[in-house]
Amino acid sequence: MGGISSHISCGTIIVIYNSSTYIVIVVIAVAVAVVVVAVAAVVIEVVVVAVVVVVVVVVVVVVVVVVVVVVVVVAAAAVVVIVVVVVVVIVVVVVVVVVVVVVVVVVVVVVVAPATAIVAGCVIKRPRHNKRIRRRDKRDEGKPSVVELVRLTTSFLSHRRAVILKTLTP
C-alpha cells in the first residue's frame, strides 16, 4: 500500500493518498486566484466607471459654469448696449429740441420783432373824432401812405410766416 497517487479534479482539488493515513489536502489556490482576479476585475471596473462618472460630472459642471458665465457676460454687454442706445437717443432728442428752440427764437428776434416795430412805427395814432381830410403835400407824391405801408408790411409778414412755417414743418 505504498506510493502516492493523486487525483486532480477540475484543476482545483488535489487529493493525496498515503499508505498509512488518509490525508486530504484541498488546495483551492487556483479557485482563489480566479475569484481574486474576478473580484479585482470587478473592483477595477467599478473604479474605472466611478472615475469616468466623476470626470463626466466635472466636465458637465465646468461646461455649465462656462455657459452661465458667457450668458451673464453677454447679457451684461446687451444691457450696456441698450443703455448706450437710450442715452444717445436722449441726447439726440435734446439737441433737436434745443436747435428748434434756437431757430424759433432767431426767427422771432430777426424777422417778427423788426417787422412788428416797423408796423408799430408806421401807424399814426389819430383821434377818431377828427373828420378832416388831410391833403397830401407835393413832397409826399410817389411815396406810399401810412395805410399802404401797413398793408404792405402785413402782406410781407404773412408771406414770411408762411415761408418760415413751411421751412420748419417736416
Q: Please, could you describe this protein's structure?
A:
- This is ABC transmembrane type-1 domain-containing protein.
- It comes from Elysia marginata.
- Keywords: Membrane, Transmembrane, Transmembrane helix.
- The chain crosses the membrane at residues 21-44, 50-72, 79-99, 105-124.
- The chain has one domain (6-129, 143-168).
- The protein is mainly α and 170 residues long.
- The protein has helices at 29-122, 146-168, and strands at residues 6-9, 13-17, 22-23.
- It starts with 5 loop residues before the first strand and ends with a helix.
- It is rod-shaped, with a radius of gyration of 58 Å.
- Helix 1 (29-122) runs antiparallel to helix 2.
- It contains two helices and three strands, in the order E-E-E-H-H.
- Strands 1-2-3 form a three-stranded antiparallel β-sheet, with no helix packed on it.
